[in-house]
Amino acid sequence: MYRVRMLAAAAVLVVLAGVLAACGGKTEQLSKVRVGEVTRSIFYAPQYVALSQGMFKQEGLEVELTTIPGGDKVATALLSGGIDVALVGAETSIYVAQQGSSDPIVSFAQLTQTDGTFLVARKPVTNFDWNSLRGVTFLGQRKGGMPQMAGEFTLRKHGIDPQKDLNLIQNIEFANIASAFASGTGDYVQLFEPQASVFEKEGKGYVIASFGKESGKLPYTDFMAKRSFMNKYPDTIQKYTNAIQRAQLWVQQKEVNEIADAVKSFFPDTDIGIIRSVVQRYKEQGSYATDGIIDEEEWNNLKNVLRQAGELKGDADYKMLVDNSFAEKARTAVK
Q1: CATH no. for residue 175?
Q2: Distance between CA atoms of 239 and 317, rounded to whole angstroms?
Q3: Rounded CA gap, 239 and 60, in Å?
Q4: Which of 36, 94, 196, 243 is spaced 20 to 30 Å from 79 by Cα?
Q5: Rg of the chain over CA atoms, in angstroms?
């Protein structure tokens, strides 16, 4: 059935391309945009605001959102034409470029600008000192992913070698990390929300530090597309970026409870109190980007994180892998 849907979608795009080509050579546009997100997370609240508040529709776009767990799987879907736009870690475009792609994946708007994970201990800790982690069993995130790299970057900043000074566990699937900690694995764990807030509510763990605050600003999660797609459908990319800019401003201006109400339908199994707690935590530490522009300083910080993790092979050309033109226009046009 999935394959049939993909073939049908491809057929629609072919027909649409033919119709638009017949219209006197006008810039091609898509009214339907297939988006793949790497996970469903309150960390991506502005995206869900754009959907729930009709901001994409205001731009004349219909967004089909699919969750595709794993950055490698999202990249595969994007490269193969299964989706048009990806919401995934910025490192994904670098990994694809390192493999020598002739049609690079390009970031055109950032959604989050810090890491979104937190250090969680089994018991409350007052006056936490990073040096107290030496010798503990640390349940980290997947090797090569931004959460793990940002975590290791932070540890090194505090003089801790993750490979030598910790008993580091990083071979557990992302979806199983929280349950592994709850069942007794590890003294400390690196967790995304809402698991961190859920553990605090249930007394299973306590947030004692933020990797987002410690690792600094990064183009952490970006919207990206193939360069060929962006060249073919620049108006569609612009409209998409406009909608995201509108949502980013909305999130900055609104109170926590209103934001939580706007995104709650995307998290039907999550208590509204937890959603509010997560939104407040991410707002307070500035995780939600205020616009889509990815500046070069943030990009260089990202490269430093990858370089320290041993994942950067050569250079990652900012000018080749980032296109701020759409975000710059959106910031000017959307008030």
Answers
A1: 3.40.190.10
A2: 26
A3: 8
A4: 243
A5: 20
